[in-house]
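Lecture 7 notes: from sequence to structure.

We start with a single chain of 161 residues. Read the sequence below before looking at the structure.
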Amino acid sequence: MDKVTVPVVVVEDDEDQYELIKTRLTSSKRQQFELIWYQSYAEAIKALEAGYSEVFLLAEAIGSETWLRYVEEARNHGTTASFIILADRWCDELHKKVLGRGACTYLVKDTLGILGLEQTIECGLRQSAHLRIARSEIEQAATFSQLRAPPSRQFGCNRRF
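Now the structure, written as tokens:
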């Protein structure tokens, strides 16, 4: 059985951390990963706009910027991509923030193993697929409700005859 190539965008300013992720993912026996590396959130916006991947691994912070602004901006633009935050340490506050702000989950960089990393990326792919389905259903429902609206509502007429 052929491996499916999964594109993954990695946003990390620390080259050593990127190389660690790359080493782990290229050793996968189940899947083949194509990594696209950016060292800033601003550069990664291009990958998001171009639709390079459905899964983004984001460093918790790059310089003074944090993942939160990037994810919020991405969600405001309507992306269905999945975001996995790469944190330096486990933190309950960060865990709650990640789940409440549109990211899929987060991983602690020092504990990255290939199986956990693969499974988390697979979860991210499923989340992205679910978001696409939900968006499609919402768009279909909106279209259907416009088609079923009485003529006075369709054309903005508020007068009663």
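The chain has a mean pLDDT of 79. Keep this in mind for problem set 3.
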